[in-house]
Amino acid sequence: xxxxxxxxxxxxxxxxxxxxxxxxxxxxxxxxxxxxxxxxxxxxxxxxxxxxxxxxxxxxxxxxxxxxxxxxxxxxxxxxxxxxxxxxxxxxxxxxxxxxxxxxxxxxxxxxxxxxxxxxxxxxxxxxxxxxxxxxxxxxxxxxxxxxxxxxxxxxxxxxxxxxxxxxxxxxxxxxxxxxxxxxxxxxxxxxxxxxxxxxxxxxxxxxxxxxxxxxxxxxxxxxxxxxxxxxxxxxxxxxxxxxxxxxxxxxxxxxxxxxxxxxxxxxxxxxxxxxxxxxxxxxxxxxxxxxxxxxxxxxxxxxxxx
Length: 307
Hints:
The protein has one domain. It contains three helices and 16 strands. The chain is mostly beta strands.
């Protein structure tokens, strides 16, 4: 039920914790919606970044700052889905969809409308029910989520399962996970192919809380992923940049919801940060590039198909 980091979709619903015995173990399973099932989701997403270029004397050549917030709320129903594959047809009924940038709020084209998301010839299309297909900038966020990850269905499934423990875990137990599928997703989904130092990755989770709610097993766990960056990446045709020591990407997610696979109720809060310094050479000088970027997202999900 870890839907994607595009960064990353999940759940809603909390309650007081019931007493547990420390020696109990928990097999963590997250539900994935099947054909005919529905859920509601409320999401708040914020992106902020600062991009700077300086010459060899330290003089600033360019500085660009971007801050953007998206808030939406919708009901999603899976209309078509083959076993083991991603849903090929979805309906989203949007109650709210707004974007804020530089203090200005804009209602997105699908605000208050129903959006059909359908896969045709290996590509997803996004059409307002009874209206036109979303294209260009209006479809950009959906393209990033559905078309531009570069992952096959099997790779996406492996990514969603990568964080989960291979065996039952105790309360307050930490487990490490193989970051291979996660790094693959980052490398395929990012515009810049940043060089990750794979033998120095920190990848761990911890079960922090367990409790019962409505007869189901709930719990809270953290996902902590630290990706050191070092090496070269392509800036353009025949031009490489060299990443400086100390550059990194860091991902921290906090999940609190159903962990027995019977419901997708839960809350996921995630932060993805990039702290990067690099240098590259033009025909006449060396340029220093600095990038500080942060993507924060909170998703509250309520399963409408619980049995």
